[in-house]
Amino acid sequence: MRSPASSHSGRPLVRRAAFTLIELLVVIAIIAVLIGLLLPAVQKVRDAAARTQCQNNMKQLGLAAQNYHSSFRRFPAGKGGPTTSTTNSPGVWVSWLVALLPSLEEENLYKTLNTGLSMTDLASNPNAGANVKGFLCPADSDSAFAQLRSYEDSAGAAKTTTAAMGLTNYAANLGAHYNLNSAGAPYPSATGYYGPGYGELATPSDLTTSPAKFFQGAIGYMGYGLAITDIKDGTSSTFMAGEVLPSLCTYHDWAHYPYSTTAWAINSQIKSIEAGTPAPSSKGDCVAFRSRHTGGAQFLFCDGSVKFIAESIDATTYIAISTRRGSEVITGEY
């Protein structure tokens, strides 16, 4: 009769020692350290991928703007209609991005929009609340969902209802408006929003006779687009558009009129606006170029190139690149 400690072959059984609690804790600690080492690397890869995709989105916008210019001999108006921008027209809330939709393989969406009516009139333009993937930076998850906006109608009267508009991370460069000096100090509110000409209807002759009616960036304000020949400082030295965070500003949706200025430094006031001071609806404070990329934001230039601009850029240089006809001598690097 075999003893209980013997195998069927008669050989004694060898008991395997179990893991002790200390050994398990050591293994868990090693795994935790490895995860801690891997997570930053994974996050860096994800950030780099998001930044690359964002850059590609902006390059596509640049190509679309160049195609538009080839067809109509000018860039689209910042807002206004009809979207050909070949004639002066009333201030209908139709953005420059709407005009680029056909060149961005979004012609089907474009055909559903009534560009003779305000994009904030969702009864007539319900698809203005749609998300357009090419208008969104993947690094900003907050922009992936339509948000309620409150706007004026095309006659300038305040709307009593809000509209769920599709957002965008790419806003037109209006230049250094709402800016008092080269250091980027904002205008006092008494001077009016965004400097001279705000709300005025610009005509082609205003380019020479009343330049104050035009914002000093590359995308005109109301009803008339600018030609490459109007960008006197050079297309490779002038911003066309830059990144923004629509969750921090109620004016950054793609169909209405996404715009921004260099009056505030890149990535300025993010924490204060997220904390509710100032409010996202405060025009003078919320309209600035910002991103979720570490250290700066990406900008589209009028020649179609895209560059990452550090938030530490010299204020004078930053403002100079944002104006199309300032005749500045840019000495700083960017």
Structure, described:
This protein has helices spanning about 20-70, 95-100, 105-110, 205-210, 270-275, 285, 315-320, and strands at about 145-150, 165, 170-175, 240-245, 260, 295-300, 305-310. It has about 325 residues and is of the alpha+beta class. It has one domain (about 40-320). The strands form two sheets. It has a five-stranded mixed β-sheet with strand order 5-3-4-6-7, with helices on one face. A hairpin with a 4-residue loop joins strand 6 (about 295-300) and strand 7. The longest helix is centred in the first third of the chain and has 52 residues, at about 20-70. The termini are far apart. The model is unreliable at about 80-90 and about 180-205 (pLDDT under 50).
